[in-house]
Specification:
The protein has helices at 14-26, 37-47, 63-73, 88-96, 109-123, 157-168, 176-184, 193-206, and strands at residues 6-10, 30-34, 51-55, 79-83, 101-104, 131-134, 137-140, 145-148, 151-153, 174-175, 213-218, 222-227. The chain is α/β, with parallel strands linked by helices. It has a 5-stranded parallel β-sheet, with helices on both faces. It has a 4-stranded antiparallel β-sheet with strand order 6-7-8-9, covered by helices on one side.
């Protein structure tokens, strides 16, 4: 029998932590709880969770620092950040340091669980095309690994999924909202600039341009991966 996936919940409010744990375990997942940032990081290294729900405002070590440390160790484990602030700066900062999504408090636990399940459907899929190869680029989405000009790209899951999706659909233009819907897997009501942040990070990691394809901005619309046919 397959072991349940482990979800690490780093939250200093015991009422919120207990509520999230209850909903997580109702989905057949295993909840692991930490009440501060240092404990959360210690449990991350000890338990090797499949998913992290991470509050920003934590004692000992805040969520920003925990996220950075986790990303130094593993660019692929999904992270949803919890924040009491709704400002775009806090959301973009979280995405910029490697979080996959964010939920603003107070939140509906059903919405949080829907987001967790949507990400898990992508990171632990039943059926999908596992790998894509283009000149200079190879992506294996089942292993969450990508190589550009024989150099491994260290990307968090959302960046990897955006690049994979665009490579799976070469020369097709997608609006920001379409990419949000496709990659996040639900009706996303956040800032469309989320996509811009991820695209910027992907471009930074590609460094040198390929002569065979390019990640293009279609002004006023969105993005596409333009692949030369000859």
């Amino acid at each position: 029998m397959q072991k349940p996936l482990k979800v690490l919940i780093v939250e200093d409010d015991p009422n919120i932590s207990d509520l999230i744990s209850l909903y997580i375990e109702k989905e057949g997942l295993c909840a692991i709880c930490a009440e501060d940032g240092e404990m959360g990081l210690s449990l991350y290294f000890d338990k090797n969770p499949d998913f992290i729900i991470l509050d920003i405002m934590l004692p000992e070590m805040d969520g920003w620092e925990v996220c950075k440390e986790v990303r130094r160790d593993n660019p692929s484990v999904p992270i949803i950040m919890l924040t009491g602030k709704g400002e775009s700066y806090d959301k973009i900062r979280g995405l910029d340091i490697g979080a996959d999504d964010y939920v603003v408090k107070p939140f509906d636990p059903n919405e949080l669980i829907a987001r967790v399940k949507a990400i898990l459907r992508r990171t632990h899929p039943i059926n999908r095309r596992e790998s894509i190869s283009l000149p200079d680029l190879n992506i294996n989405i089942s292993e969450y690994k990508a190589f550009y000009k024989d150099k491994e790209l260290m990307m968090p899951p959302k960046e990897m999924e955006i690049l994979y999706f665009l490579a799976l659909n070469p020369n097709q233009v997608f609006t920001r909202q379409q990419l949000l819907d496709k990659i996040w897997g639900y009706d996303y009501d956040g800032d469309p600039r989320t996509i811009d942040v991820h695209i910027k990070r992907i471009r930074e990691k590609l460094e040198e341009e390929s002569t065979s394809w390019a990640l293009k901005t279609i002004r006023g619309i969105g993005y596409k991966l333009e692949v030369n046919k000859h």
